[in-house]
Amino acid sequence: MARHVYACPLRWSDMDAFGHVNNAVFVRYLEEARIDFMWRLAPGEGSSSFTGGSVVARHEIDYLRPLVHRHEPVTVEVWVTKIAAASLTVAYEVKDEKELYVRASTVVVPFNLEEGRPRRITAEERAFLKEYMDDCMEEAVAV
Fold first, then answer.
1. Which of 17, 47, 49, 80 is most deeply buried (CB count within 10 A of its CB)?
2. How far is residue 74's CA from residue 118's CA, in Å, rounded to a whole number?
3. Is residue 98 a contact partner of residue 41, using CB atoms and an 8 Å limit?
4. Which residues are CB-contacts of 139 (< 8 A; sequence separation ≥ 6)?
5. Cβ-based neighbours of 84, under 8 Å, separated by 6 or more
6. What is the C-alpha separation between 143 and 137, in angstroms, rounded?
């Protein structure tokens, strides 16, 4: 299984009064990694994959260890655990070489902004997503 790896910088403003990354900031880290995965890595030059918009239907986050400010970025690994007709589930780990700080998942729904409604995942998008599908989750791919 391939995982997309995103180097996420920590900003001083990410810290809360207790000196660690605020829990809500982790949602932004996940968003940055997800956008880097879905849009920057969209298949093909000039492809319209993933450019029509999407909405987040659900986040699930397990905070495992506090993360304090440092100059080195953290790594956010991203992969796909489920592909349905009109949604996908992306999983994440926020970590460095020594610690795992967060495990999370997000249900993303492709959205047609002009029509104001969800849309189905295209064949091109499905092929791209399958490259990042967890090998243990292959049965979760809906046709």
1. 80
2. 33
3. no
4. none
5. 121, 142
6. 14
The tokens for 115 are 């029509």
CATH number for the region 4-140 comes to: 3.10.129.10
Contact 107, 57 (CB under 8 A): yes
Which of 113 and 9 is assigned the larger pLDDT?
9
Q: pLDDT tier at 113 (50, 70, 90 boundaries)?
A: confident
Residue with tokens 């995942």: 121
Average pLDDT of the segment spanning 69-92: 96
Domain ranges of the chain: 4-140
pLDDT at 142: 44
Task: Check residue 44 and give its pLDDT.
Answer: 61
pLDDT at 42: 62
Question: Can you say whether the dihedral through the CA atoms of 5, 7, 13, 15 is positive or negative?
Answer: positive
DSSP label of 73? P
Report residue 41's pLDDT band, with 50, 70 and 90 as the boundaries: low
In the block, tokens 């982790």 appear at: 26
